[in-house]
Amino acid sequence: MVALLPTGTELVQPGSDLKPGSIIEFNSRMLGAFVEQWGAVARRKEITVDDIQRVKETVAAAVDEADIVLVNAGSSAGSEDYTANVISSLGKVLIHGVATKPGKPVILGVIGGKPVVGLPGYPVSAYLGLDLFVKPLIFHKTGRVPPEPQVIEAAISRKLVSSLGLEEFVRVKLGKVGEKIIATPISRGAGILMSLVRADGMLRVPRLSEGYNAGERVMVELYRSPREIEETTVIIGSHDLALDVLANFLRLKHPEATLSSANVGSFGGLSALKRGEAHCAGTHLLDEETGDYNISYIQRLLAGRDMILVNLVYREQGLILARGNPRGIRGLEDIARQGYIYVNRQRGAGTRILLDYYLRQMGIEPEQITGYEFEEYTHMGVAAAIKAGAADAGMGIRAAATALDLDFIKVAEERYDLCIPGEYWDTPYIQRLLEVMALQEFREEVQKLGGYDLRDCGKVIWRSR
Question: What single-letter DSSP state applies at residue 192?
Answer without folding.
Answer: -
